[in-house]
Amino acid sequence: MIKIPHSRPTLGSEEIKAVSDVVSSGYIAEGAAVQKFEQSFADYLKIEHAVATNSGTSALHLTLLALGVGPGDEVIIPSFVCCALLNAVNYTGATPILADIRPDTYNLDAADVKKRLSRRTRAIIVPHLFGLPADLDALSALGIPLIEDCAQAVGSEYGRRPVGTFGTAAIFSFYATKVMATGEGGMVVSNSTDIAERVRELKTYDQKVDYRVRFNYKMTDIQAALGLAQLGRLATFVRRRRAIAELYERAFKSLDLNLPPGDPGHIFYRYVLGLNKNSLPWIQALAHKGIGCDRPVYLPLHRQMKTKGCPVSEKAWQSSLSIPIYPSLTDEDATHVIETVLATASRLK
Questions:
Q1: CATH of the domain at 227
Q2: Per the domain annotation, does 211 fall within a domain?
Q3: pTM to 2 decimals?
Q4: How many whole angstroms separate alpha carbon 319 and alpha carbon 153?
Q5: Do β-strands 157-158 and 161-162 pair in parallel, antiparallel, or remain unpaired?
Q6: 3-state secondary structure of 315
Q7: Is there a single domain that holds both residue 327 and residue 307?
Q8: Which stretches within 253-297 are classed as H helix?
Q9: Per-residue CA distances from 166 to 75, 146, 265, 285 (Å)
Q10: Which are the contacts of 319, defined by CB distance < 8 A and separation ≥ 6?
């Protein structure tokens, strides 16, 4: 039985009161709380516009549409990522082009992306995977609009500036186990008024004079209330994640493992160990000891699309192991994780 789960949200009295206040108000759809959350999030990033949505996937879908992406276009995405990116590109009718990752960061390899550019490339979706900023300088130099995928990276910084403020637009996710949790929820941010207005116009279909395909992608005030409470605690969340990462780094540095980079902007949404061997026996052994671990990406996109050409992503998927790291993980639990990982390493070497 799993006693220490791989992921869990960090919720407390602040969130309970925030949701209770919204429910007590009798207004639970999109309203004043959503507007306040959007403004607070934009202020936090020091960016012009933030538009709340009901998920990170819908945020990405709307961003692509706002950029005019559609049939005949190509959008470059990494293979080593969840299928939400693939879905969003396919929703628009554009063609997803898979690119490989860097072995040291698991983020997009700009050199590999460059090889896959064509005259039809309209955008590059750039995840800051596991909370580690991607190489935005190298990717920006390619001259293609960047959509930053900050689903796992709210609070992360690239050169002392928040991720999400570098690309043409950026998206965030507030799923239950993300850095900030609203159950479901997302956000589009941009300094472009045009992009923000297009996203806002497309996310709701009701009370429109002209008909076109629009969506029901609105956030509720209940979700927004959770988001405001979580945003107020974000700095504490990030400090705790980094403190646990320091414990892990000290404990595991003598092992024959690849540890996460110590980048100053890293927030450690996941703590991913590179094992240089199949991670499945480790996952099973740790589960037997009550510790929930997993491959950090369920299945890379090249496997889902049954294509080849992403060897680094394939190796990363085979050999990566994500161990528990979240703000509510106690020191006692972290110590137990460390001791069990060390014992497993000794047994499976």
A1: 3.40.640.10
A2: yes
A3: 0.97
A4: 23
A5: antiparallel
A6: helix
A7: yes
A8: 280-288
A9: 18, 8, 14, 41
A10: 274, 275, 276, 277, 278, 279
